[in-house]
Amino acid sequence: MAHGRTRIPALLATAACALAGCDQMSSDFGDASNALFPPSPAEAGRWAVDDSDPENQRRGVLLLGNSSFGGDTVYVNLYRLYIEENTDPVVKATAIQALARHAGADDAQLIAKQLDSTVEQIRIAAAKALQRVHDPRVADTIWKKMINEEEPAAVRVELAIALGQYPSRDVFEALCSALDDRELAVNLAAANSLRLLTGADFGLEPALWRSWADATASPLRADVPYYYPTFERQLGFGDYLMFWAIPTFEEPGVPSGLREPAAPAPDAAPAPAAG
Q1: What is the pLDDT of residues 216-248, one digit of tens each?
Q2: What is the pLDDT of residue 101?
Q3: Which of 68, 145, 173, 216 could, after both became Cys, cross-link 28 (CB 3.0–4.6 A)?
């Protein structure tokens, strides 16, 4: 990371200026950290650029990425730098996660390159990030990785989900192949993406999917909006005890790079077309 160290001081100085006098950001930061005594934005910024302590870097990047101001240019450039040059896999995975929340379409190629990492945690982070960034130039990379059964199922599931935003015949065929995968989670993710891409539903039967597509003039539907999935859980009693910091969850959204306006995310999956 020698080259990266030559670039980090400039980012440090810029970040310090950006974080100076930012008391108005504290409420945002409290929401992002969900801690009883959340760190200040300035403290998180110092953690993010602390190259002597990877755990501080991870915590700082996580807090910045989850904040409303984490999409400022100085922070986005920091995430990119860590993805390209940071040698700690946990920091790099966290930077991928942070960039995905604030990325532009051009970042999809940088993220897709991380699918070649030797570290599974980084590949999982990249696969999830590609659900949030749309660029047809990376679709082939995604489906080719997904059909590689040497790849852990945790990675292939996320890639199958990401493919739901790419209505092409190559993607369709790859998802049909994934229906024969030995991992049920991959089968189910592929089937869900096929339903989204076509509006049809033939379950886990690749032969039925293919025969239907061959007999249908336009089997792929580019008009159906894709929403990246987000985490949500049912709140428990303990959550409500801290009434000043009740957890809130991110809503599903349209990936960066899909510029056409879309309707609000539906509460239920669209009804399948008749087989």
Answers
A1: 999 998 777 888 876 655 656 554 455 445 555
A2: 93
A3: 68
Contact 214, 176 (CB under 8 A): no
pLDDT in tens, 146-198: 999 999 999 999 999 999 999 999 999 999 999 999 999 999 999 999 999 99
Label each residue of the chain as H, E or C: CHHHHHHHHHHHHHHHHHHCCCHHHHHHHHHHHCCCCCCCHHHHHHHHCCCCCHHHHHHHHHHHHHCCCCCCHHHHHHHHHHHHHCCCHHHHHHHHHHHHHHCCCCHHHHHHHHHHCCCHHHHHHHHHHCCCECCHHHHHHHHHHHCCCCCCHHHHHHHHHHHHHCCCHHHHHHHHHHCCCCCHHHHHHHHHHHHHHHCECCCCCHHHHHHHHHCCCCCCCCCCCCCECCCCCCCCHHHHHCHHHCCCCCCCECCECCCCCCCCCCCCCCCCECC
Residue 122: count of CB within 10 angstroms of its CB: 21
| CA 33 and chain centroid, separation | 19
Nearest to 175 by CA among 155, 191, 157: 191
Spatial separation of the C-alpha atoms in residues 115 and 41, rounded to whole Å = 31
Q: How far apart are the first and last CA of the chain?
A: 55
Question: Which residue in this structure is represented by tokens 């292939």?
Answer: 156
Q: pLDDT tens across 5-60, in order?
A: 556 555 555 554 555 444 333 333 444 444 456 677 788 889 989 988 999 999 99
Q: What pTM value is reported for the model?
A: 0.78
